[in-house]
Write a structure and sequence with these properties.
Helix content is 77%, strand content 1%. It is an all-alpha fold. It has a two-stranded antiparallel ribbon with strand order 1-2. It is globular, with a radius of gyration of 22 Å.
Length: 502
Amino acid sequence: MNSTDTTLGTAGGDTDRRRWFALAIVMTAAFMDLVDVTIVNIAIPSIQRESGATFGQIQWITAGYALAFAAGLITGGRLGDIHGRKRIFLVGIGGFTVASALCGLAVNPEMLVASRFLQGGMAALMVPQVLSIVHATFPAHERGKVFGLFGAVVGLGAVSGPLLGALLTEWNLFGWEWRSIFLINLPVGVAGLILGSRFISESKAPRALKLDLVGVALVTVGLLMLLYPLIRGRELDWPVWGYVSMAGSLVVLAALVAYERRKAARDGSPLVELSLFKVKSFAAGIAVQTVFGVALGVFFLVWTLYMQFGLGWSPLKAGLTGVPFSIAVSVAAGMSVQKLVPRFGRKVLQAGALVMAAGVLLYIWEAGAYGLDIAPWQMALPLVVMGVGMGLIVAPLTDAILSEVPREHAGSASGLINTVQQMGNALGLGLVSVVFFGTISDHLRPEQIGPAFADAFQNALGYVAAVLGAIFLLMFALPKRPAQHVEGEQVPVGEKEPALVS
């Protein structure tokens, strides 16, 4: 280990405590983003009632965040490499906090939509720095433990959003109604800004890079052309222009690849570091991450629709039902990276895919057996099994993807990981219209709604189980053991140490 890493990692010293404080700060920011993605869905009826928003505006309140977030992630990661990950993280969390305040204080639906776009854009600056800061701050042999914590945070955030949104809306703190779901971010964001400026150490790419503006334009246009029709497709009844746009996005992204190759050869400062895809663990992991995002995108939306519309449960009852799932993900994520992966390697992730698929199949059986009389406690077993499976995947997968990535490209790699996950989620949301709504008649009598939604839920979960089977097979392309699970520091060939500034 070189002197720079020794300075960061002196066991028991002040710098050691500082980096664990820094980890807590960036993990809190990641949790805040994860919660904010889902918390709005629960409050939509309250927003619509109090603000007078149209259905189209309600769509944009959710879609605006997703579009700005997905389109800006790669750029946000690269900006951290160039200008310093701490600096861009602080800009991101500060902007996210301001945008949250604007959302909470919005005087009309138009202001709320615009503020959600800003919030998504600021999250795109903040979120890629989380993995980059971890990658640059912790030596390789410690990252397993850190990514175990990261997986626990992901699991907690997955279902905490709906639960927190239900509680805040029901409590109606200070008469704020739906506004509290945004204003709750203010104290967290301000604390993160103050503590982050003190405890996070700066890191950036060791050689000077320039922002690739043409690459920024191409990646933004390409992702918007792909994601916009997916997000709005069902609402607009899948117009022809949507299919044309998605096909055109492939042309734009192909042009991006060609341009980035020339850019890398010319000055070595591409937006997307294509050499990363020559790293087998990264390329395979990105493929798994994308398909896994599809499965999660389908499941979480149809699960919410099934409980609230099919079973007629309140948002709070639905949110509390997800608690066993969240706990199972958090526990399994911590164990997988710290205890299981060092011993069994890739088999842990593959076991996770099979266990999660088994939980999905058990859920299908229970939904059919108990029908509309199913109770939350009866859902606990399949949710725990699914949560354990997801926990075995989510933390080690991030670990495996980044295990052999050169540190100078940590920001670009982190941005790509988050981008493909968002693309997978968006694709999953688009597929919901086929695998869920595609089986529901447009003209249902009130007494037909529950059985129709229950049947559609089982149908959609069948597709989720099939996708998890495909993920199991894709995982054979992952390395048998991530590089950092050997003793001591392992630096991949060609890796340079990061430039670190206290």
